[in-house]
Specification:
- The strands form four sheets. Strands 7-6-8-11-9-10 form a six-stranded mixed sheet, with helices on both faces. The protein has a four-stranded parallel sheet with strand order 13-12-14-15, covered by helices on one side. A three-stranded parallel sheet has the order 1-4-5, with helices on both faces.
- It has 16 helices and 15 strands.
- The two termini are about 30 Å apart.
- Helix 5 runs parallel beside helix 6.
- About 45% of the residues lie in helices and about 15% in strands.
- It folds into three domains: about 5-110 and about 320-350, Rossmann fold, CATH 3.40.50.10800; about 115-230, NadA-like (Rossmann fold), CATH 3.40.50; about 235-310, Rossmann fold (3-Layer(aba) Sandwich).
- By secondary structure, the chain is α/β, with parallel strands linked by helices.
Length: about 375
């Protein structure tokens, strides 16, 4: 079930009673329900969640890490996934049929994942096959729908994370002459560039116009980048970097590879969320950092490292708005529906889609082992 289908079939409006409860009342109820269900309840929380939610998370991490932890937590009957829709889908794909994955608010989607739907992808694949023949391997960022993961699995491709994108792109080139990278053009471009593919050999597939955007001889194309992006990370700009360089010349700039190629090139370091967190943890006291990633995480890092001077690369950056739909009232609502036996917002991925999605995930995990 994709998010559009889910919204058509599921009540998405928070009951009025939760709007009238105090924060203390809601926090107390969450604690009571967590205590009541014990190991039968597991609450994974993505790094970008608000502190009001993260305080109740049994573990924090990135999307794949949390899905894997959900799968390994076999005692948990209920997994209340505090993230966005595609993350909950991945958790449902990896967990057993007996485990129920619940998303507190179905409106918690991902703008990047929504930029590549299966119908656009299948049309693109048909046209690319007619243009290039059987020379392309599809790779998808885990920040994509289960249907897109399944498409890659069915066509010999795999998923990638921001941590292992380099090794996965290298692997893909041992399989085929070209790759199609979905849905984030920036991660695809930055990764391919880092392993030596010139920008001149990268084209863009525009899913809106169903056209390949490229000036030159198409036979030279090695990487086809889906025209998608993260709405948060694309808002870090060259001007942000130049401002920090001017106002804080001794400050390290570290960014996520979902930022544009230009911003990554001008930064000192670039890496996954885990990479950023660990880099700050290992940095010496007194060091100075400007971080280019989601604001909730940046604020949390700042609070956890008072011995360092840390700022956001873009001081006007907003948190991930869709991720922030998961809040304390929606978390409590989900827990109380479990308690009452009237679960809402359960995520269920069709078995045929799950089968092929697992193929794509396993190809990635095999490379990691």
């Amino acid at each position: 079930m994709n998010i559009v289908e889910a919204l058509k079939t599921t009540e998405a409006t928070l009951p009025e009673k939760y709007k009238n409860m105090s924060t203390l009342e809601m926090e107390q109820r969450v604690r009571e329900i967590k205590h009541q269900f014990g190991e039968k309840l597991y609450i994974p929380g993505h790094h970008y969640q608000k502190d009001e939610v993260i305080q109740f998370a049994d573990s924090t991490g990135d999307s794949l890490q949390l899905a894997q932890q959900s799968a390994s937590n076999t005692k948990a009957e209920y997994i209340v996934f505090c993230g966005v829709h595609f993350m909950a889908e991945t958790a449902d794909v990896l967990t057993t049929d007996e485990q129920k994955v619940i998303l507190p608010d179905m409106r918690a989607g991902c703008s990047m994942a929504d930029m590549a739907n299966i119908y656009q992808t299948e049309r693109a694949w048909e046209k690319l096959m007619s243009l290039f023949g059987d020379t392309i391997l599809p790779l998808t960022y885990v920040n994509s729908t289960a249907a897109i993961k399944a498409f890659c699995g069915k066509n010999g491709g795999a998923t990638v994370t921001s941590s292992n994108a380099t090794s996965m792109v290298e692997w893909a080139f041992t399989q085929k002459e070209r790759i199609l990278f979905l849905p984030d053009q920036h991660l695809g471009r930055n990764t391919a560039f880092d392993i030596g593919v010139p920008l001149e050999q990268m084209a863009i597939w525009n899913p809106i116009t169903d056209e390949l955007e490229f000036d030159g001889d198409v036979d030279t194309i090695k990487v086809i980048l889906w025209k998608g992006h993260c709405s948060v990370h694309e808002n870090f700009t060259i001007q942000n970097v130049e401002t920090v360089r001017t106002e804080h010349p001794d400050m390290n700039i570290i960014v996520h590879p979902e930022c544009s190629r230009e911003v990554v090139a001008l930064s000192d370091y670039a890496g996954s969320t885990k990479y950023i967190i660990e880099a700050i943890e290992k940095a010496p006291p007194g060091s100075k950092w400007a971080i280019g990633t989601e604001m909730n995480l940046v604020k949390r890092i700042i609070s956890q490292h008072p011995d360092k001077q840390i700022i956001s690369l873009n001081p006007h950056m907003c948190p991930c708005l869709t991720m922030n739909r998961i809040d304390l009232p929606h978390l409590l609502w989900s827990l109380e529906t479990i308690e009452s036996g009237s679960i809402h917002n359960q995520i269920k991925v069709d078995k045929s889609i799950a089968h092929n999605a697992i193929l794509a995930l396993n190809r990635m995990l095999e490379r990691a082992n």
